[in-house]
Write a structure and sequence with these properties.
169 residues; 75% helix; 7 helices; mainly alpha
């Protein structure tokens, strides 16, 4: 019989390498992105089964965007590609998703009488809340991101140079 692998060795590459790390799944951002993807998929399925099938494109796009950002943040693409403004893109995605979900949920609940439309509307209101929480948290990240960017500007460096020159006198 083979000895089990020591606890310090890594698992061989395979299907488990596609799964996000546990630290990310436990993080607030990971849980929010996962909730957004799951809710968007459920809403998409509900709209397919309902009379309000014309609303199915918004949840599909939000599902794909949430899934992309989930794996982008999990694989730390935001740290590898500094040229993209990740917090701004995430903030805009969350704001537009919250507004769109709120609007189509009101329309689905008030205009259509079938159960799938009502369920999509209820899940849409839940998704609106999740996206609103995410854009509130992302807004705080965006503010710190923009403050870092302004300190890297030439004006920010010039005042720092002047301060260091006056300190050396």
């Amino acid at each position: 019989m083979e000895d089990p692998e020591p606890a310090g060795t890594a698992a061989p590459p395979g299907l488990s390498s596609l799964l996000p790390p546990r630290e990310f799944l436990r993080s607030r951002k990971g849980q929010l992105l996962l909730a957004e993807a799951v809710l968007s998929f459920i809403i998409f399925i509900c709209y397919i089964a309902s009379l309000a099938a014309s609303f199915m494109m918004a949840p599909l796009l939000e599902f794909l965007l949430a899934l992309f950002l989930f794996f982008a943040y999990a694989s730390k693409l935001n740290e590898k590609f500094k040229g993209a403004h990740w917090p701004l893109a995430d903030f805009l995605r969350c704001v537009t998703a919250a507004i769109i979900y709120f609007a189509i949920s009101i329309a689905a609940v008030s205009k259509y009488s079938d159960g799938a439309s009502k369920a999509a509307g209820v899940f849409g209101f839940a998704a609106t809340i999740v996206f609103a929480i995410d854009f509130y948290i992302t807004f705080n990240d965006l503010v710190t991101f923009l403050k870092q960017g302004s300190s890297d500007s030439p004006e920010g460096r010039k005042t720092e140079d002047e301060d260091s020159d006056s300190d050396s006198d």
